[in-house]
Each structure stands twice: as structure tokens, then as C-alpha cells.
Design goal:
Oligomer: single chain
CATH class: Mainly Alpha
Number of domains: 1
CATH topology: Cytochrome p450
CATH architecture: Orthogonal Bundle
Family: Belongs to the cytochrome P450 family.
GO molecular function: heme binding; iron ion binding; monooxygenase activity; oxidoreductase activity, acting on paired donors, with incorporation or reduction of molecular oxygen
Number of strands: 12
Largest sheet: 5 strands, mixed
Radius of gyration: 21 Å
């Protein structure tokens, strides 16, 4: 078991670089196995069984990022989960998101205009961070001037202590909790201020004025939904972009496939999401005893669904260890699965597709700047210090 646990830890805790071989080692331990007091899934079939049985595998596993209450709707079980999704899902419906294409394309080109003549950029800070941040703030109806503050709060929730160089667990916990309080205070003040003015139809207004079972959300419910929207809106798409372009910078064949044939971009986005899996794992807690693919599960056990392992399972996709932009169909779990499938997946896909289309239309050939070394921060998978160069 010691060797198995060591192999698991190497694959599970490392979010750096290519991970297919690590996932293969994990699958060698079984479709589900016990480690560190939790049950880990390693295959598509095991992940699917957890997702399809929310009555056994509860989402009330929190707290997420030190939040004081369960986040809405990701930590809410049925039947209440369905009520919240009925309110929130229309905000991210395809028709709503598709209407944003001109606005997103204009923003992408505005960002590119700012550095294209320089022959290079730091991709993460000059493109991958500002693009989804500005889209998110506009959708929510939050002031663009608050971007730096909210990005700092996001890092304090998802990677507490990383920017500050803190390693002491007590100091990290204290910093995280201070940030949690600031986030609640920020959204409460914003809600209070918005109530003084006319109704607005942005996402914040829809959350504040929407109803479930004939009643408005309480302030606590509004804050718990906003807490999750902050995490998802300011991190997931940034992470995906940095992972995609790190791959493109190291794989000229993939880069030129997208640049020379823009029609492949939708399938390229799906395949890169499958391969990179920016959100590596999601969690559940067992509320009853069960047997998961031969592994005993006891009431109270934490279950870790490894999405990266599920997405690269050769039993589900025979050539799962290779990147193919013509893979059809491609039902990956990068947006999780079951009742908690990500509401924002349409927005994420739209931003990623437009970014790839507009960037490669204007900068088709680029590479990693010699002498620079990308960094892989802790937490969700992403790449920083990604310096790209090109000649036009």
C-alpha cells in the first residue's frame, strides 16, 4: 500500500505538465481505491457511477475555500439543488451566451492590439487573466475598477498564501479566513447599494430579484451564490487558456492545425479541455455504505472523483492518451457530470472558442520565449510566467 499511495500522491498532488502516465499508474490500483482515508476514482465508469447516484454521494462535502456556508448550487443536494439551478441556469443559457460573441470578440482584439506590435507578451497576465475577468465583471454588473481587488480575493481563496510566500499552515489559514470575510463583506455592501437604485437586468440583478418557490433569495443565499460565481468566473477560463497556449507553444503541429483550419476550433477546445482538465478533481461524501467498482465505501467517506483520470481512461476512449482535434464525439467530464454539471460551461466554451479564433487569425505562429520558464502554481491546474514570442 505504501508504494501505491506514493504513486497516487505523485499523480494526485502534482498538477504539472503531462499526466497521462500518472493516471495510468493510478488506474493500475483499480477503478476505485482507498488512500489517505478517502476513496479515489480513476476511471470514467467509476466517476459516472458517483455522478449518477447523488442520493448516495452527497455534494455537502465543504467547506470550499474556507467559505462559512455551503456554496450555491455546487454544495446543495436535491431537491433544493434543482430549485437553485432553475433560477441560475437561464443566466448561462446558449442563447444568452451566444449573444455575447461580438462583445467578447471585440475585447479579445482590444487586448491583442495592446501587445501585438511588441512581438511578444506574457500571455497569462496580459491576456488570459484580463479577458475572462472583464467578461465576468460586465456580466455580473460589477465595476471594472474592482478587478484587481477581486482577483486578489480569488487568489486568497483558491491559493491562500501563494502570492505572499507563506508556508506556515496557521498563517495560511488566517489569511484565507480574512479573505473570506472580505468577500462576504464586499458582496453584501454591493447588494445593499444595488437595492437603493433601479432594477437592473445583469446577472447580479437576476440573482437578487429571482425567485424560488415564490420567494426571493435571502442575503445569505445571494452571497453564497456570488462566492461561487467569483471563483468560477475569475479562474476557470484563465486556467484553461494558459494550459491551451502552453500546449500550443510546445506543439507547432497543433498550433498550425488551428491556425490553418479555424473550423477545427470547437473540437480543439473540447479535446484540450479533455486532455488538460483544468479542474482536476471534485469531491463527494458518502451518506450511506456502498461498493464502488469493487471498493468498499463507508458512510462518511470522502470520495475524490479524479476528472483527469476519467477523461483519459483508455477503456472509454481507446486512444485516450493522444491529442486528436477531430475526436467526435468527445463527452469529457471537464465540466463534471450529473446534476452538478457546470452551469457556466456554455460561457467557458464561447470565450475559449472566440479567443482561439481571433488570436490565431492575427498571430498564427508563436513560440515560448527562449530563456523563460513557465511556473505551475498550486491548486487548480494553470500556467504562469508564460512568455510567448512571434514575428509578423
Amino acid at each position: 500500500m505504501a508504494d501505491e499511495l506514493s504513486a497516487y500522491q505523485q499523480a494526485f498532488y502534482s498538477q504539472v505538465g503531462e499526466r497521462f502516465e500518472g493516471f495510468q499508474q493510478m488506474r493500475g490500483m483499480g477503478a476505485a481505491f482507498r488512500a489517505d482515508g478517502a476513496v479515489i476514482t480513476t476511471t470514467r465508469a467509476a466517476a459516472e457511477r458517483v455522478f449518477q447516484n447523488p442520493e448516495i454521494y452527497s455534494s455537502r462535502f465543504g467547506p470550499i475555500c474556507g467559505a462559512h456556508r455551503p456554496l450555491i448550487p455546487i454544495e446543495i443536494d436535491p431537491p433544493d439543488h434543482h430549485l437553485y439551478r432553475r433560477l441560475l441556469d437561464p443566466m448561462f443559457a446558449p442563447r444568452t451566451i451566444n449573444a455575447l460573441e461580438p462583445q467578447i470578440a471585440a475585447l479579445v482584439n482590444e487586448l491583442i492590439d495592446g501587445f501585438i506590435a511588441d512581438g511578444g507578451c506574457r500571455f497569462d497576465s496580459q491576456f488570459a487573466v484580463p479577458l475572462p475577468t472583464q467578461v465576468f465583471l460586465a456580466l455580473m454588473g460589477l465595476p471594472l475598477a474592482d478587478a484587481a481587488f477581486l482577483l486578489e480575493m480569488k487568489d486568497g481563496l483558491l491559493r491562500p498564501g501563494y502570492r505572499e510566500g507563506l508556508t506556515d499552515p496557521v498563517a495560511v489559514e488566517a489569511l484565507n479566513q480574512a479573505v473570506v470575510v472580505k468577500v462576504y463583506d464586499y458582496f453584501q455592501a454591493f447588494v445593499d447599494e444595488r437595492r437603493k437604485g433601479p432594477l437592473r437586468d445583469d446577472m447580479m440583478g437576476q440573482v437578487m430579484n429571482g425567485e424560488i418557490e415564490g420567494r426571493r433569495l435571502t442575503d445569505e443565499e445571494i452571497l453564497d451564490a456570488c462566492f461561487l460565481l467569483l471563483l468560477a468566473g475569475l479562474d476557470t477560463i484563465t486556467n484553461s487558456l494558459t494550459l491551451f497556449y502552453h500546449q500550443f507553444a510546445n506543439r507547432p503541429d497543433l498550433r498550425m492545425e488551428v491556425a490553418n483550419n479555424p473550423d477545427t476550433i470547437p473540437s480543439a477546445v473540447e479535446e484540450l479541455l479533455r486532455w488538460e482538465t483544468p479542474t482536476p478533481q471534485v469531491y463527494r461524501v458518502a451518506v450511506a455504505d456502498d461498493e464502488l467498482m469493487g471498493c468498499p465505501v463507508h458512510k462518511g467517506d470522502v470520495v475524490v472523483i479524479d476528472l483527469g483520470a476519467a477523461n483519459t481512461d483508455p477503456a472509454f476512449q481507446p486512444d485516450a492518451g493522444e491529442l486528436h482535434f477531430d475526436r467526435e464525439p468527445n463527452p469529457h467530464y471537464s465540466f463534471t457530470g450529473g446534476i452538478h454539471r457546470c452551469s457556466g460551461s456554455h460561457l467557458a466554451r464561447q470565450e475559449l472558442r472566440i479567443a482561439l479564433r481571433e488570436w490565431h487569425r492575427r498571430i498564427p505562429d508563436y513560440w515560448m520565449k527562449p530563456g523563460t520558464t513557465p511556473a505551475w502554481p498550486p491548486g487548480l491546474r494553470s500556467v504562469e510566467n508564460l512568455h510567448l514570442e512571434w514575428k509578423l
